[in-house]
Amino acid sequence: MAQLLFSTPAFRPDGSSVENVPMLLDARMRLVEPACAWLMHVALVRGRTRSPQTWRTYAEALYDWWQTLEANGWAWDEVGPGELAAYRDQMLRPRGDSGRPLARSTINGRLRTIGRFYRWSVATGLMKQVPFASQEIALSRSRPQAFLAHVDATGGRIRANELTVRHMPMLPRPLAPEAIRRIMAAMPARDRLIVEWAVTTGIRRMEVAGLTVRHLKGAGSEPMVPVQIDETKGGRSRIIYPPAPLVDRTRAYVREERAVLVRRAATKRADRDPEALFLTCRGQPMKPRRVGAMFTAAAEAAGVTATFHALRHTFAAAMLRFLQREARANPELNPLLALQVLLGHADLATTAVYLRVVETDLSAIETSVDDLYAALL
Fold first, then answer.
1. How far is CA 241 from CA 42, 92, 215, 304, 358, in A?
2. Residue 218 — very low, low, confident or very high, per pLDDT cuts 50/70/90?
3. Structural domains of the chain, ranges and CATH numbers in brackets
4. Is the pTM of this model over 0.90?
5. Can you tell me whether residue 216 is helix, strand or coil?
């Protein structure tokens, strides 16, 4: 079966090192040339896809499709709507490992990625036409409007892959401070710090994993410490503002617990990244998936259904409520635009979802960022 690999720092396509570029190999360990050519284009040429996380997402979708091609004996450039529809329907069936089908958002994401690959193949002359049709659909009225929706001449209609399935996205669900406290109760110091960084700044698990010791060098007497992070979704740098007491406790973790891990790893001559802020018990950097798995396990042990991303939703809802209150005294402040900057969203419509959260979720209405910090720190 096909295999998915990622480049190491030794990969130098244009003379400079590029890590984490995905590569697809067939059952005979040969490069799948059309797939690899597109993935290289995505990673090295396209200006809008600078994040290795985006490369991985695209690669995993194409990898799953290529496994389906091999399992059914289909040629990648001879498939049509029937084969793609069969692939979609297979994803809609319950899976053996979980007993549930894939989420419709996941299915649509894979189909859109496959669509991007085939459109690129047509544009580069590898195929004559894409193996699916597009249709015009109306955007859901529950979907947040874009910033310039009032000058949109399309009437709220877009062209979409006809194979995608109807999907009604759910509103983000913030966690109550009490639920977060229950999850944190049995956590070791490192894991509690990770949760506090997430819930007080809104950073994602990949951004937590990207924190380094250098991020703690900021000093001052202000209650919030500005920290610039570069390992973000989409590769866009932004400033986060952890509370000063949290930064102080994190520095204590670096001096004490982390220092022991670093010395132990050095004694064993283990490979390690000395810059990574949060380390495993072996002295290795915490990876994003490990961060997510750590939180999910702790939540399950506390009887709470939640993922790590719920901490970002909690911060966003609380911060929006706080900014709305601040705007009463400062009319020049736009709460939604300020929140967009803090969260690092490229599209204001993504941030606008939280307006509905604070309108419909009573716990979010009652919890502002001040209340949240006081309850957790």
1. 32, 41, 11, 27, 22
2. low
3. 3-146+157-161 (no CATH), 177-376 (1.10.443.10)
4. no
5. helix
